[in-house]
Design goal:
The chain has one domain. The protein is 79% helix and 0% strand. The chain contains 8 helices and no strands. The radius of gyration is 17 Å and the shape is globular. The two termini are 15 Å apart.
Amino acid sequence: MSLIWGILAAAAAVMDWLALYFHWNKINRITKPAVIVFFLLLGWQISAWQGALVWFGLALLASLAGDVFLLLPERYFFGGLVSFLIAHVFFLIGFNQDASPLTGISFILAASVGIAAGMAMRNLLAALPSGSRQSERRWVIIYLCVLTLMWLSATLTLTNPAWQGPPSWLAAGGAILFTLSDLLLAYNRYVKKYARGQLVVRILYHLGQAGILAGALLRWG
């Protein structure tokens, strides 16, 4: 049964990408949340979201809420931002169930993440709204800080013996893709509109969620 949910999630993701590319808006309203629903069912089938995996299940639920908000008119964007902020907090808690040892490699990884995130944040801050939209600016800054911590926590699984091998590679890779998705969405909104930017954001998002979920299920499932 778990294989079926995985196949359905992959099929829904591909259909969602096609719906975005060809502007099939009615289909997109179904396929976008369907991907996360199938991920949730997959996780439930394998683990019933028990133990540390509950945090990843909650993160997917918050992501599902965020997906729905972002399908609604523009005035609901803030709801989507807060939903994904909560999702990253849950991911952050999940990745930190096992403390990562302090090593030279972990320090280098942390420094690399910090430098990359700092450069991206600097460019975004210059373009973020001010004045009457100052509140949105503050929330985006908070979001970027939490996103960076989630990315860092996932990356440090590479040096954590509890996450050896494929689980850490999948989790770290998924977190990078998820981070790129969020950063591109922000750039697309505040800095410059990219051709097919929304499609690239969605592809990175789905692959990122799949990587994190696969890593977590291999670690605890």
